[in-house]
Amino acid sequence: MHSSLVRRLSLEQELEGHRGCVNAIAWNSEGSMLISGSDDTRVNIWSYSSRKLIHSIETGHSANIFCTKFIPETSDELVVSGAADAEVRLFNLSRIRRNGVEEGGISPSAVFQCHTRRVKKLAVEVGNPNVVWSASEDGTVRQHDFRDGASCPPAGSSHQECRNILLDLRCGAKKSLEDPPKHCLALKSCDISATRPHLLLVGGSDTFARLYDRRMLPPLSSSQNKSPPPPCVNYFCPMHLSDLGRSSLHLTHVTFSPNGEEILLSYSGEHVYLMDINLVSGNSMRYTSADVTKLTSFSPILDRAEVHSSLYGASLNGFSVRNKAARLDKCRKLVQIAEKSLKGETDYYYGIEACNEVLDGHGHGHEIGPSLMHECLCIRASLLLKRRWKNDSHITIRDCHKALQINPSSTRALICMAEALAVLEKHKEALDFALASQSLSPSDFEIMERVDNIKKSVAAAEADKAIMKSDRGSKTNYRAGKVLSLSDIIYHTEGDNDASIDDPEREDSDYDDELELDFETSIATEGGDDDDSNVLPRNLNLRFHQRRDSTMEIDRPNGSFGMSFENDKVRHQPEMAIDMKQRYIGHCNTGTDIKQASFVGQRGEYVASGSDDGRWFIWEKKTGRLLKMLHGDDAVVNCIQCHPYDCLVATSGIDSTIKIWTPNSPVPSIVAGGASGPETSNVLDAMEGNQRRLCRTREAILPFEILEHFQMHEFAEGSFHPFECAQS
User: Fold this and answer.
1) DSSP state letter for 472
2) Which helix (H) or strand (E) holds 12?
3) In whole angstroms, what is the distance from residue 625 CA to residue 93 CA?
4) What secondary structure does DSSP assign to 637-679, as a single string?
5) Minimal CA–CA distance to 199: which of 217, 174, 184, 180?
6) According to the model, what pLDDT value does residue 155 have?
7) Which of 119, 128, 266 is nearest to 194 (CA)?
8) What is the bridge-based pairing of β-strands 671-672 and 626-631?
9) Would you place residue 271 in the very low, low, confident or very high pLDDT band (cuts 50, 70, 90)?
10) Whole-model pTM?
11) Alpha-carbon span 148 to 90, nearest angstrom
12) Res 469: pLDDT
């Protein structure tokens, strides 16, 4: 798919047939049909050629459908669905009469009820008509083989439970890369590689995606006993998200690229990231927890000759002198544009885009030489620091680190690093870099002024920390006897969580009982409007669960007990993870738990994601440059599925319709209107509005006024149960 076609995408048609949010869409292998699942508990089958509804199945699910698929190699007669009722249901379309749309119910060919919490994602294997895999928030991936039986043993049955757990991650969630897995990893997404189907990718309630080789996993098991999580092939996580400790940040979607060489990760409260799968040993994209610390620590840099050898191993010998000169001239002009942006002549965004084109679009610096690369890194770091979008400070630190590898005496990189660390409240490290920059340029007035500002901010932060420590010491410990109210839980912000990490009493304690809060909300606001008005969510589901420490023995209904891993003598070895290759920003992913990021184009040349502002975004995969922004929903766009062969994209979200997008616009542009609103040219306003939403805490997402509309059920002693709120 050429970029000119992407820029011509516009709304062709809306498919009407559901009566609730459309949470899942998927094409069949030929691209001749589209399947969709909705809050109305129906699965609909649509014709690609006629854009008409072919079948509508009343599935019998008792709650929202989150995932649905065609089973391959079955002539598209078998379809499967997974839902919030924890069930997976299989249907045979051949049972439906062929004389039009069948509105009546159809009995499922199989019902699998072995999950205990919501089923969020289904996966199928190319060429395999007999098996489907389901990922659930109960922490398991289950393998359902249609040849083994049509249903699970009924609830309370005394005979053998289903032995279909392929991957048990009920003790698999990690707080950071160096910490051992302990708690349940509530799975949100999974995918099987189309090119290497033995590879399974999963993501859930922590920041790490995990890649498994199904051939290396233990035999299928039942849920009677929890097992330690099996070793994975690789962890995937952007380095700056790998040591957050206690955090609500989690993955909502993981997927393979069409060629199976790359993956996309979409985070709730964060951005979309691209990562490589096939990394050779010693690759710089692979890191440990020690590397995370090293990135922000002031220490002597490697010998410059060594650094240059590693950074510029790829020479320009493959290019003609004329091509080299042309490329360098283009890069210099882009750096000049970025410099003007830094001076305030244009928006910071355009300067950053210019630097991205130089650093990411030209062989990662191999074509431009160390001097221009250093200059470009320092300019981009300064621009990111001024823009201050979500986690821009972390990317600033990366750029400064690379610039210091090229020139360890760069005062520009040192002072910028210091300012970024100060923003992240790493005060000691910030002061180290600031003093280093001052020692190199003792007479530079601008450096002196910036160092003084850092010293003042560090001193103020230390004073605030001392006051807070004093206040904590004066308070009595009331946690053990206090009953938490709904307000206490909802208004417990991420900032509080981060602060709790520093509490020595909490550091090595996981508490016997913790409350886990799942929330899914879609706030219908105008695109770029940042007004915190009393707009109520269109759909809001809150679920409370009592989460016990996974190292404790857990009483089972059949009298058996789970195993305790705390007493295992095998010491946990800190693991390695693979860092990001590219970042895609501009959208907002906080309101829903099923938001996808997808590859677009037959070769996956582009990346797309839905957003909480009713738009969806398309970026160039290689550079992260925004190519297209489209308005696709009255509230939230969740699902994006590119047609396997044609230049067509289907999207869905909170609206009850599915949108079909084709390149039928007469003029290519970066924006396009849709059914939900007029065309707008102010891309930056929309993106900045989304960044403000990303930075809000849960207190802003769930204002107190919303709580007045809840009618809570009485809770049984010692536990919380799900409750619903009526749509206002």
Assistant:
1) H
2) strand 10-16
3) 42
4) EEEEEE-SSSS-EEEEESSSEEEEEES--SS--SEE-BTTB--
5) 217
6) 58
7) 128
8) parallel
9) very high
10) 0.82
11) 14
12) 78
